[in-house]
Amino acid sequence: MFMHNKRLQYTVRVERGDPVLATLMLEQFGGPQGELAAAMRYFTQALAEDDPGRKDMLYDIATEELSHLEIIGSIIAMLNKGAKGELAEGMDEMAEMRVLSGNSTSQTEAILYGNGPALVNSSGVPWTAAYIDTIGDPTADLRSNIAAESRAKLVYERLINVTDDPGIKDALIFLMTREVAHQKSFEKALYAISPNFPPGKLPGHPAFSDVYYDMSQGPGDQTGAWNSGDAWERVEDREAQAAVDGGDGTASVGLTAPQQAALEALALRTMSDPASDPRTGAELGAGPGAGRIGAGDEDVPGA
User: Fold this and answer.
1) Considering the entire predicted model, what is its pTM?
2) Bridge pairing between strands 233-235 and 211-213
């Protein structure tokens, strides 16, 4: 059960209206790294979680993310307050803003949503549940949560760098810092699970768990703890990188006799003749810039 407190978790002070900046702020309202995505990620994980400690943590953080959604939404609403009134009253300032901003999303925000916060990102793409990548394994999901908080922190850093409004900077620094705090909680929860790697129950195949295939070779090759040393069997030989199972490296399938006959008939019917060189539509319409198509053939227009 949710109960709303009318006081924001952090005070929002906006010095002046700025619809274009409001559009950029939408990234943390309805974007993939935004607060709604975070809240839904952790809330749905909490519903399915069986560990009481993790369940409690996920509910706490999910609820806090909703409060952050309210903060960023309030910033967007305040930045759009002046434009909202001008739009509603048909004032000339709105036409000037459209010309000066050059931002189609900002214009769409005005026309479709009346300058209110919309569940879209800064490019106008609608929010989608596809942003949520929960897989249902706590060690995998906690790692994904850590990465999500890291990405959100970086977006907040970038937003801080594009505004000189001290009140907005102050609120964004708070939101950015809370991403760091959540990373710490998720890290502690992850390492409270032992073992926590690899995810899932089944072990990896011992023949391949410690192998590093050096597939990209040439200038720029580097070695480090991630691809060499006692923890790794490094494979650089190109031949040894193929058919590593000991087979012949081909694909095969068992077919019934009718299936095999149908497949052979299909192959025969669609067979290409390598000796054929038919004149094509490209040749018949070839002109300057077509390359060697029809070159030397005086019967071909444009040759």
Assistant:
1) 0.83
2) parallel
